[in-house]
Write a structure and sequence with these properties.
The structure is a single chain. This protein is α+β, with helices and mostly antiparallel strands. The chain contains ten helices and nine strands. It has two domains: 114 residues, no CATH class; 173 residues, no CATH class. The longest helix has 25 residues. It is elongated, with a radius of gyration of 23 Å.
Length: 316
């Protein structure tokens, strides 16, 4: 049993519901989070030591008095995504102080994930630049994920963020997964009107060294990838059903094409499961309402790191 102020956790199931992690995963993250917190405090003391009237540790204790409670607080925010009024009420804080603590603790969580080597990269880099020395190919799966956001007030921004696919205003990120059930790359956050393939072409240079060692699987949203990225060792993309025409009024795929599509679907389902893991954290499913600069991009990166932690995946 763990008691976090007014919140009492009785079972492992409840702990996952509040934080998105098991207690074992929480304790592993807590170790590095505590070190990051202590380092931040030391830097603060060193910077403001001439202004202090008390020794470090003196004075009134805050509502989030321990590293364990601070980590629980920020994970609870990412998992449930309450308003700052609700978050402050649960942890005996004012709404403004709750927001202040969220902004302060997110970088510490990022540092802890980086030390544990679960924080994804922002751009894809092949693991090997020289494929002459080995026959082993790097296998990746590329997809994109969208999440709802508040409608911008400005008319031009509304059009920029409106997703015709989701019929709402959204944010979008490219997700690159591999066969080890992990997310090594989360692309930068962009407005939801951007097409998945156009986004990939901006983030991944076709002339980047090492692509000849990479096998990539994509869905039909990436039509033309074979032509634009000829340096990939192999590209797996489903067969598209032919268009209806006078010569072919009832187009269908051949049995061989259907079989190949099923085989590819069994491979690509891994990235769908990983995106599902991301959406367990409600900050990526509830309409995103924070207006702090770069917050939207920061939270999906941290959530991806937590998913890698859950899956015991190490980012190379």
């Amino acid at each position: 049993m763990r008691n976090f102020k007014q919140i009492t956790i009785r079972t492992e199931r409840q702990f996952r519901a509040f934080t998105g992690l098991s207690q074992k995963e929480f304790d592993r993250l807590l170790s590095e989070f505590t070190k990051a917190l202590e380092s931040a405090q030391q830097r603060h003391y060193k910077k403001h030591h001439l202004e202090r009237k008390r020794k470090p540790g003196g004075g009134r204790k805050g509502a989030l008095s321990t590293p364990e409670l601070k980590l629980f607080f920020i994970l609870f925010y990412l998992k449930t995504y309450p308003t700052f009024d609700v978050l402050g009420g649960l942890f005996d804080l004012s709404p403004a102080k709750a927001q202040e603590n969220v902004v302060k603790l997110l970088p510490l969580l990022k540092h802890a994930e980086k030390v544990l080597r679960v924080l994804p990269h922002r751009h894809f880099k092949p693991t090997s630049d020289n494929q002459k020395d080995t026959d082993k190919k790097q296998q990746i799966i590329i997809d994109a994920t969208e999440r709802p956001c508040s409608r911008p007030h400005h008319a031009r921004k509304q059009k920029h963020y409106y997703s015709g696919k989701k019929h709402q205003h959204t944010l979008k990120n490219t997700v690159i997964a591999d066969g080890s059930q992990g997310i090594p790359v989360i692309g930068p956050t962009v407005p939801g009107s951007r097409h998945n393939y156009a986004l990939l072409k901006e983030e991944l240079d076709p002339q980047q060294p090492g692509l000849s060692s990479v096998e990539v699987s994509v869905d039909l949203g990436y039509q033309g990838i074979k032509d634009h990225y000829p340096n990939f060792h192999k590209v797996y993309i489903p067969h598209k059903k032919p268009r209806t025409s006078n010569n072919n009024p009832n187009p269908t795929l051949t049995p061989k094409q259907k079989k190949e599509n099923r085989v590819l679907s069994r491979t690509r389902v891994a990235v769908e499961h990983l995106i599902g893991d991301l959406k367990v954290f409600h900050i990526l499913t509830i309409k995103f309402r924070n207006h702090i600069q770069s917050m939207a991009d920061q939270v999906i990166l941290l959530v991806a790191g937590l998913c890698n932690l859950k899956n015991e995946y190490v980012v190379q």
